[in-house]
Automatic annotation (TrEMBL), chain A:
Keywords for the protein's UniProt record, in alphabetical order: Cell membrane, Membrane, Transmembrane, Transmembrane helix, Transport
GO biological process: transmembrane transport
Full protein name: Putative aldouronate transport system permease protein
Pfam families documented for this protein: BPD_transp_1 (PF00528)
Organism encoding this protein: Paenibacillus methanolicus
Listed InterPro entries: MetI-like, MetI-like_sf, UgpAE/MalFG_permease
Topology within the bilayer: Multi-pass membrane protein
Chief location of this protein within or outside the cell: membrane
Subcellular location: Cell membrane
Transmembrane segments: 12-36, 68-94, 106-126, 173-190, 202-222, 262-287
Record CDD domains: TM_PBP2 (cd06261)
TrEMBL record, chain B:
Membrane-traversing stretches: 12-32, 82-100, 112-131, 143-164, 185-210, 265-282
Official protein name in the record: Putative aldouronate transport system permease protein
Organism: Paenibacillus methanolicus
Assigned keywords, A-Z: Cell membrane, Membrane, Transmembrane, Transmembrane helix, Transport
Assigned protein family: Belongs to the binding-protein-dependent transport system permease family.
Compartment(s) of residence: Cell membrane
Organism ancestry: Bacteria, Bacillati, Bacillota, Bacilli, Bacillales
Membrane topology qualifier: Multi-pass membrane protein
Length: 296, 297
């Protein structure tokens, strides 16, 4: 039932939003041409010199760039793996709890950190992992010398991954829990009558029931390989651990906005955007082909 | 056999509960610790003697927070931002989700708009061009710089749109038969029928606006214009980067220890209050809202 008059109204409903997206998402993509310039703020885009791919050549020669690309992918991949597995284990455990009240209470508590900002959490963790912090005190009970977590390139990446999992596992478990409630109870009954132990039920009924979800999430995670979470790292890192945790986004911020090397910062950012975009599109294509996933 | 099985089952259930209990505690400890520090005596906290219960309980830190004009100012800016941003998000999300929930037959341009939305969600020019754009518009140091760039939350639009599409089509058709226009259908039918989902996306946008710090840091040049999270962020990084690189690890640790533990803890707790206040509502709605919206058969 098509009505031209209705369609006009629909256009009117989307237009304000589209306009704002044009102004604040598309126009910046236009400004990204300065990646191909030697941009000087005083001269503007029209007055600055065009240098072709020079910024990109330069960035490939920088020793920093290899490090930040490595750190980004390393931290992101670790987080992806941990954020797939830990929530799954948690959801499987919670699924075994039959008392509704307990389930609800546990869920209520573990979702909470997801809604607290990294600014606040970073401040809290800074205290928790400090020399007199509770972690070092706990280690002290076992006779282990205090560790300067925030100054150690060995420990810091582990802390980044662990705190990220701490914040997000409850929230990430929601999707798994939804998949688990979707499993037909008759399957468990049948397995029970056949004498299958709980472990065998887990193996033969529960895990196959969440398999598709796990595969889907893993595929979609491919799009996040370049994304190590700026908000977290920016709030937690310091110069002593740049070597192990400086990522593309934090580097772009420092070079582009702090040191005012606009063109270089834009070039690094643009490179990341393009690679991420390709990865996300690829992950969507794979997910729609193998799991019938559609975004809209 | 049956008896043996049930004993075994109980042991398994017991151990599962124990593990879950530990996990839950692990989620709470850092937060409870911060609460304890915020209510503790300053010297005890600085010596690291506080764990989960305040030592020499005092509300001195909170009194100090209430006296801190900058904190208050930043808090107000954040409230302003949440109100403006939340309202704008709500209006735009509902309108866009409603129009885009129509299929291509009713709304021929629908798929073009959809691809455009997804594109803007997935591709960005990076933060330097983003900063230049907002500077070019002359929005630096204005509250609108914190609100307008995030006016459309594409993810929320898609979430709500998927929900709208699951509502029975006959509803819409019947209403149009009776002569109702699209705006009437949206306001009188779709909104009342999707309150849980709308609440979910609105709460998401409120949390987003309350928690954002980066745009405040980059787009506001004066401290008086910082929203709360940005203000807190700058407190923590008071030790400048240059100073840090020149310090030895021990010196750095000493410099960090001087920071005002109890005062900062109180600031953190106060900044968390709005989130804790709306959290029960998020809890009630969001699982429902998310699972219905994200996976389509």
């Amino acid at each position: 039932m098509y009505s031209r008059k209705n369609a006009l109204h629909y256009h009117a409903m989307v237009l304000p939003g589209i306009l704002l997206l044009l102004l604040f998402s598309v126009v910046p993509i236009g400004f990204a041409v300065i990646a191909f310039q030697n941009f000087k703020p005083g001269r503007g885009i029209t007055g600055s010199e065009w240098v072709g791919l020079e910024n990109f050549h330069y960035l490939f020669q920088l020793p920093d760039s290899r490090l930040i690309f490595f750190n980004t992918i390393f931290l992101a991949v670790l987080k992806i793996a941990a954020n797939l597995i830990v929530p799954l284990v948690f959801a499987l455990l919670l699924n075994e709890v039959r008392v509704r009240f307990l389930r609800k209470s546990i869920q209520t508590i573990v979702y909470l950190p997801h809604f607290i900002s990294w600014v606040l959490l970073a401040t809290i963790f800074f205290d928790v992992f400090s020399l007199e912090g509770i972690v070092n005190q706990a280690l002290g009970l076992f006779g282990i010398d205090p560790v300067l977590f925030y100054a150690s390139n060995r420990w810091f990446p582990a802390i980044i991954v662990a705190t990220d999992v701490w914040k997000e596992f409850g929230f990430n478990a929601i999707v798994y829990l939804a998949a688990l409630t979707g499993i037909n109870p008759a399957l468990y009954e049948a397995a029970g009558i056949d004498g299958a132990s709980r472990f065998r039920q887990l193996w033969h009924v529960t895990l196959p029931g969440v398999k598709t979800t796990v595969i889907l999430l893993a595929t979609l995670a491919l799009g996040n390989v370049m994304n190590a979470n700026f908000d977290q790292i920016f709030n937690m890192y310091n110069p002593l651990v740049y070597q192990s945790s400086d990522i593309i986004d934090t580097y772009v911020y420092r070079v582009g906005l702090n040191d005012l090397q606009y063109s270089l910062g834009t070039a690094v950012g643009l490179l990341k955007s393009v690679v991420s975009f390709i990865l996300v599109v690829l992950s969507y294509v794979l997910a729609s082909r193998f799991a019938g996933y559609r975004i809209f | 056999m049956v008896g043996q099985n049930s004993v075994r089952n109980r042991i398994i259930d017991g151990s599962i509960l124990a593990v879950l209990f530990l996990i839950t505690i692990a989620c709470l400890i850092p937060l409870l610790h911060t609460v304890a520090v915020s209510f503790s005596d300053k010297t005890a906290a600085d010596a690291g003697r506080v764990f989960l219960t305040p030592i020499k309980a005092t509300t001195a830190s909170y009194a100090k927070v209430l006296d801190d004009g900058q904190f208050f100012q930043a808090f107000l800016i954040s409230v302003q931002r949440v109100l403006l941003g939340g309202l704008l998000n709500f209006v735009l999300t509902v309108m866009m989700a409603f129009a885009l929930s129509k299929d291509a037959k009713q709304f021929p341009m629908r798929n073009v708009y959809m691809w455009f939305l997804v594109f803007t969600m997935l591709f960005s020019g990076g933060i330097v061009p983003w900063f230049m754009t907002i500077k070019y518009y002359g929005l630096l140091d204005s509250i609108w710089a914190l609100v307008l760039p995030h006016a459309v939350q594409v993810f929320n639009v898609i979430l709500l749109m998927n929900f709208f599409r699951n509502l029975p089509k006959e509803l819409n058709e019947a209403a149009e038969m009776d002569g109702a226009g699209p705006w009437y259908v949206m306001v009188r039918l779709y909104i009342p029928l999707s309150l849980p989902s709308i609440a979910t996306v609105t709460l998401f946008s409120i949390v987003f606006h309350w928690n954002s710090f980066f745009d405040g840091l980059v787009l506001m040049s004066k401290q008086d214009h910082y929203p709360l999270q940005t203000y807190i962020q700058t407190l923590v990084t008071q030790i400048s980067a240059q100073a840090m690189t020149s310090m030895s690890p021990e010196e750095l640790a000493a410099a960090m220890a001087v920071s005002n533990r109890t005062f900062n803890a109180a600031k953190i707790i106060v900044s968390m209050i709005p989130i804790l206040l709306i959290y029960p509502f998020i809890q009630r709605f969001f699982i429902h809202g998310i699972t219905l919206g994200s996976v389509k058969e």
